[in-house]
Amino acid sequence: MSNFLWACATVGYTDKRLFSAFAPVIGSKLDECNKQGLATIAWSYAVANVPRQDLFNQVFIGALAAYENVFSTEDLFQLHQWQLWQQEIGSGMELPQSLGGKCRNAFTSASYSESKLQNDVVDELKAAGLDLDEKVLLGSGYRVDALVKVDDGKSVAIEVDGPFHFIQRRPMGSTTLKHRQVGKLDRIEVVSVPYWEWNELKNSLTKQNYLHEKLGCDRDH
């Protein structure tokens, strides 16, 4: 079940009726789940944004705590996003302090790779005279490609979304989750620059006009 829900969440298929139907079944079989299965279930429901108290309760927390010392880095990464989701929905559910700390450390220590596409977008943001910081670590633990100050003084996060962020131009679950959680928890608007839109822009002028339009700021900024 965990692999099936993970596959659905990964490709962005998050039908609430489907996830709701599985919740009580999973809740009754938690003792049969291994560490990866538990982390996968947590992450999948965070992506789907389907709160279920019959699944995510103190029994679930206890099951996670039992594996605290053997979770992989990927497991910890997913559990941090689940904990962020609990903050999103105001459930009051929290991982044990030591496990929560390990999850956040794994999440914020994740390697950050730059792409040619990302560098091109950042170069054009700078050429457009926009005030920005690169590779910014936010309070949630997410890192965004660029944080740009726009006309009204607020900051907007630019996320350069390449081919691996989509399936046939539909956002992957991880992309949707990041944008949603940054918006809700860091209270920062996320502006996505999809690779296919960027690739259609043929010169610096059209790229800078595109960025100004995306950010909703004046061209003479």
From TrEMBL:
One Pfam family it belongs to? RAP
Family annotation (InterPro entries): FAST_kinase, RAP
The name on file for this protein is RAP domain-containing protein
Q: Please name the PROSITE patterns in this protein's record.
A: RAP
Which organism does this sequence originate in?
Thalassiosira oceanica
Upper lineage: Eukaryota, Sar, Stramenopiles, Ochrophyta, Bacillariophyta
Question: What SMART domains does the record point to?
Answer: RAP
Q: Give all residue intervals belonging to the RAP domain.
A: 156-213
A single BP term in Gene Ontology: regulation of mitochondrial mRNA stability
Q: Name one GO molecular function term.
A: RNA binding
One GO CC term, this protein: mitochondrial matrix
